[in-house]
Write a structure and sequence with these properties.
By secondary structure, the chain is mainly alpha-helical. The protein has 5 helices and 4 strands, in the order ββαααααββ. It has a two-stranded antiparallel ribbon. It has a two-stranded antiparallel sheet with strand order 3-4. α3 crosses α4 (75-82). It is elongated.
């Protein structure tokens, strides 16, 4: 949590309108009450965290930002937990590369040094 210039705390997930933290037990009680009303008993705060991450990823928020929002220590943690949500990422990457190569002017492609040998990008 960081102090806001007006003295409020920033970075709180559950805060009142004045920016002060809510009591954890009150938050949990409200969550249980609201989910029971919606016939979704058993949803916990951690479930909401996963839901928020999934929504951010589905909306195209960069993974580095999602990772930061979740306060993961490394990007690898986020990838390990949510990588399965990117099932079409490899296809999109290949398609983007194909489009870029198809649009490159003739003669602009060149070999790229890789280790002790060159790996040609185009014939």
């Amino acid at each position: 949590m960081n102090a806001h210039s007006e003295g409020r705390l920033e970075g709180l997930v559950f805060a009142n309108s004045g920016g002060s933290p809510l009591r954890l037990q009150w938050v949990l009680d409200q969550l249980r009450k609201r989910t029971a009303e919606l016939v979704h008993p058993g949803i916990g705060v951690h479930d909401l965290r996963h839901t928020a991450a999934s929504i951010m990823i589905a909306e195209g928020v960069p993974l580095a930002i999602v990772s930061k929002a979740l306060r993961h220590s490394t990007l690898a943690t986020t990838i390990n937990l949510y990588g399965h949500l990117f099932k079409d990422s490899a296809d999109r990457a290949v398609n983007a590369l194909t489009r870029a190569l198809d649009q490159a002017p003739v003669g602009q492609l060149r070999t790229v040094p890789r280790g002790d040998h060159d790996l040609p990008l185009a014939a």
